[in-house]
Write a structure and sequence with these properties.
The protein has one domain. It is 69% helix and 0% strand. It contains eight helices and no strands.
């Protein structure tokens, strides 16, 4: 189990990366009203609306059907953001999106990395 110091460190890293992801959203011209959902999914694995779920799941047809007028004109922007600035594990298919949510996003991923893996730790060897 992660120590309180390790959890504090992970949370500090997540805060820094959250700010960086907001900056990337602005750079890629993701509409302001969509940025919180993008960041919530990536950083904490929080469920988002149908449009963003389709975007993260790489479901073009569903995303097109769910997009409002502004987002319908931003598909390339989302593609560039997802390709360049979010972890690969948080996108790709609906199953991968659901797994990312279950993990707890990037925060959960980092905390998982702190857990001893089978064959490691004091009991190993």
């Amino acid at each position: 189990m992660a120590s309180s110091d390790e959890i504090i460190h992970v949370d500090a890293v997540i805060r820094e990366q959250t700010l960086r992801l907001y900056e990337k959203c602005v750079l890629h011209e993701i509409p302001a009203y969509m940025q919180e959902g993008v960041v919530a999914h990536v950083m904490k694995g929080r469920p988002v609306g149908d449009f963003l779920t389709a975007i993260f799941a790489n479901d073009l047809m569903e995303a097109a059907l769910r997009a409002d007028g502004t987002n319908a004109r931003r598909f390339l922007n989302y593609a560039r953001l997802l390709h360049s600035d979010v972890p690969m594990k948080c996108r790709g298919s609906l199953a991968e999106v659901k797994a990312w949510r279950k993990l707890g996003g990037l925060r959960g991923f980092y905390l998982q990395q702190l857990e001893p893996q089978p064959g490691e730790g004091a009991d190993a060897g």
